[in-house]
Structures are given as C-alpha cells and as structure tokens.
Automatic annotation (TrEMBL):
Family classification: Belongs to the 4-hydroxybenzoyl-CoA thioesterase family.
PROSITE patterns: 4HBCOA_THIOESTERASE
Ranges for domain Thioesterase: 18-101
Name of the protein in question: Acyl-CoA thioester hydrolase
Organism expressing this protein natively: Fonticella tunisiensis
Pfam families: 4HBT (PF03061)
UniProt keyword terms in alphabetical order: Hydrolase
GO molecular function: fatty acyl-CoA hydrolase activity
C-alpha cells in the first residue's frame, strides 16, 4: 500500500486558547494530506475536475488520541483504504514524531460536476488504475 507523508508545522491560528490545535483543523489537515497524496501521483484537484472527476465528501471521521500544539512538527500519512468504481475512502494518521495524535478517514464519491456518480474505471481508466496501484488490491 502506498502511503504519502506530508510534513508541516502547526501554525498559531490553528490553536485554541489553551494552545492546543482546535479539533476541526484535523479535518482540514486530512484535506491537505489528500490533496498532496493526489499531487504525488501526478494529479491536482484542478486537473481532475477539468477531466470531469469530482470527489465530494460523503462522510468524514476522526479519532483524537493526543493533542498537537503550536509549532509542533506534524506528519500526515495519507493512503487509500478502499477504492470502488464510484467511491474512494482515504485513511489518515497524524503524527508528531513517532507519536500518533489522530487517525481518521474521508469517504469521497466519484462524480461529475453535477454531482452524479460516475464509474471511474470507465470514465478515466488511467486515473482509476493509478489509484488502484496505491491499494493492497492491485
């Protein structure tokens, strides 16, 4: 399974009054991980949309284990948990060094610009096969 790792530092505006990263920022970080995961495969969201492939979120979840704080160096591990013809489920693990801070997922539909499901393997076999290579199913 292919896992993309993206590093960054926690910025001050991402923290609450206690100096702890506010919980909703983890979902934003998932988005960053997913965007950079796709970019690492040679696709930007813009290019996918230009090819008629949209990835709207259907469901998202996060389990918090330990807080991140201002200026921590964070690494987001992003991978594909499941790939179907009309859905893709991304998994995420957020680390500070070796310490797992949070883990979660996002389930994306694969649609056209009208949010109608499309079968990615038929619509764009190249993108589908590239994503399939990132899974354990190959």
């Amino acid at each position: 399974m292919y896992v993309y790792r993206h590093k960054f530092r926690v910025r001050y505006p991402e923290t609450d009054r206690m100096g702890i990263v506010y919980h909703s920022n983890y979902i934003i970080w998932f988005d960053i991980g997913r965007t950079e995961f796709l970019r690492s495969l040679g696709y930007t969201y813009r290019e996918l949309e230009e090819q008629g492939i949209w990835l709207p979120i259907i469901q998202v979840g996060c389990k918090y284990k330990s807080p991140a704080r201002y200026d921590d160096e964070i690494t987001i591990h992003t991978y594909i948990e499941e790939l179907g013809r009309v859905k893709v489920k991304f998994g995420y693990k957020i680390y500070r060094g070796d310490e797992l801070l949070a883990e979660g997922f996002s389930l994306q539909g694969i649609t056209n610009d009208k949010l109608k499901p499309i079968a990615l393997d038929k619509h764009n076999p190249e993108v589908y096969n590239k994503l399939l290579e990132c899974t354990d199913r190959q």
